Here is the input.
Amino acid sequence: MLYGYIRDKDIFERDYQLFLSNRLLQGLSQSEQAERRMIGKLKTECGYQWTSKLESMFKDVQLSNELNVNFRRNHGDKFGVELYTNVCTTGCWPSSSIPPCNLPPQLKGVTEAFKKFYLAAHSGRRLQWRCDQGKADVMVQFNPKTKKVLSVSTYQMMVLLLFCMKDKVSFKEMQDQTQIPTDELQAHVLSLAHPKVKVLLKNPNTNKVADDHEFMINSKYKNALYKVKVPLLMKLAKNNKEIAELDKQNKIRRRHMIDAAIVRIMKTRKTLKHPQLAAEVVDQP
Here is the structure.
């Protein structure tokens, strides 16, 4: 394996876990067996401590599949919304921070029912909704003759549902009602209003967003497909910000690992010259 030749193994492990989590949560993995074989090879190379988190991620997804089947069996379609959830164990997935947001009224019934269902089966646990990693299919009636199913992110779905109550919604109103972080909201809204997408119309028609800018559904929307996938065009900017934050965390983690290695060595050797100490720290597994 090439893993043995990688110098910054901690960075590889961080990125691999991040990309694997994205494949699992977005349903992008081509083969579960291939993913598990890769984890098995990584376990042979780097040990159980790190790969145990990857295996826990697969276990969470498998248990979530069973949980969703049981929930639908008990509640059926009485909410008019098909909900699919991934219940992720804190500490096993790359990011544990949960961005704030307000779930739309259309989802309150089904989410509360799922929460009661889950906590009844797993007492003592806490369930929090994380909407920045999800996706949704939303049926939009653009005009009396045009109806499309849009495949969007959960944040974009929350924005589109606001137009059930008003024809025009300002960016400030979107912020107040959804509580989505400003940078995230800008990226998702501008993706819907992009000239190549035109699900929403923006006034004024610029690539910047201010509180008083207004958005509306494009009544002249046209697309040959019935189901349309809306790309998140600003995803790259978000990824760069995430990577910078992860690099900062990684440097802190490395410093702690070096400190721990020095303490272990000095407990054993008691007295050591600096060149010898540096050599032994580098040789630490």
In short: DSSP finds nine helices and six strands in the chain. The first helix runs from residue 9 to 26.
